[in-house]
Description:
Layout: H1 3-18, H2 25-40, H3 42-49, H4 55-66, H5 72-83, H6 90-106, H7 114-126, H8 129-136, H9 142-153, H10 159-170, H11 177-191, E1 195-201, H12 207-221, E2 225-231, E3 239-243, E4 246-249, H13 252-264
Parallel strand pairs: 1-2
Antiparallel strand pairs: 1-3, 3-4
Helix pairs in contact: 1-6, 2-5, 2-6, 2-10, 3-4, 3-6, 4-5, 6-11, 7-11, 9-10, 10-11
Amino acid sequence: MGSASREALAAAQSVLNAQSSSLTAEVGVQLLDAARTLNSHSALRAAIGNPIADAAAKNAVVDRVFSGSVAPAALALLKTVADSRWSEPADVVDALEDLGIRTLAITAPAGLAIDDELLAVNAAVSSNAELELALGSTLGVADAKAALAQRLLAGKASSATQAIVTHLVSVPRGRRIGELLTEAAKTVADQSGLTLATVTSAHDLDAARVDRLQKSLSSSYDRPVKINVIVDPSLIGGLHIQIGDDVIDGSVSARLSELRRQLAS
Length: 265
């Protein structure tokens, strides 16, 4: 996103948080539905995301398309998005997706960790090449991929996680399925006041080591950190940590690669 879109998204998130008491899970689903609608209709996306169009005119478009079919809280958030100035129309789809996921996080029942469910789905998909292809292929039909996701998750994941996953596989917009699920988990964690750190290790980490890592990273980033552990034997040893845009690569495989580069130079 460009700077204008980042500012517009931050403002929309502030409005969302201010209205949290009036939100329902239905609003989150409707925002995701709206994101898919704009993604599939370029003229509508351009009308609402036009950076130079009059806000009143854009709000009128929102009313014509969505009034009566979405809850008042969803309509108000759609108008907030339309009122804003976006770097490019495509960013409006990203914004509605973000707001929809955050709404589902806000309205989740106490004790439900949607981010953990999304990470579990990611682990299951990434371990099955056939399933990863079926859900992530750019050649797949959106409705078929959504139906497959619903069948796989029925009775195994919350309705909020089902809504997020079916949305993501329907409109990947050039993103890989693993990236989609991980970024959605990060968004859910962020809405809960947490930063998600992905720690890749050659071996399973015991609870004590995960706890030490969590405390160390939370102290370094001055914000509570949630650890997502991935086991990848190809690392040989050590850890690869990604948190936000930061990467800390202390794996043996990385050190060996660096040594090979030095010897070859």
